[in-house]
Amino acid sequence: MEATQEINKLVERVFQEIGQKRHVDLEASEMTIRAASHRIGGRLLEKLINADGGRYRGSCIPCGQGHRARFVEFRNKELLTVLAPVEVQRAYYH
């Protein structure tokens, strides 16, 4: 879900709550906003981390032992960050 959509859903939810209860549950709203902020921040961080194309450097690269390592595939790894879990994609050579 895009950040704008998530923000719009959150605002809609708060206004529905005001209409139903005639007041805002500040603690619940604050926790919801915090969780949404972390998800949005996590998505932004994930895009930033993966902006390098997975460090793909071609079909073959020097391996450091005088041989050539061939590109096998892109592999994903989930990292737990302060904001949210993010998925990092990296080129795997063998």
Your description of this structure?
- It is a single chain.
- The protein has 94 residues and is α+β, with helices and mostly antiparallel strands.
- It has one domain (3-93).
- The protein has two helices and three strands, in the order H-H-E-E-E.
- The chain has helices at residues 3-21, 26-49, and strands at 60-62, 68-80, 85-93.
- It has a three-stranded antiparallel sheet with strand order 1-2-3.
- A hairpin with a 4-residue loop joins strand 2 and strand 3.
- Helix 1 runs antiparallel to helix 2 (26-49).
- The radius of gyration is 21 Å and the shape is rod-shaped.
- The mean pLDDT is 89.
Features:
3 strands; single chain; 3-stranded antiparallel β-sheet; rod-shaped; 94 residues; alpha+beta
Report strand %. 25-35%
- The topology string of helices and strands comes to HHEEE
Which structural class best describes the helix and strand composition?
Answer: alpha+beta
The Rg value, from CA coordinates, equals: 21 Å
Number of strands: 3
Mean pLDDT: 89
Shape: rod-shaped
Strands of the biggest beta sheet: in what spatial order? Answer: 1-2-3
Could you estimate the helical fraction of the residues in percent? 40-55%
Contiguous uncertain segments of 5+ residues: none
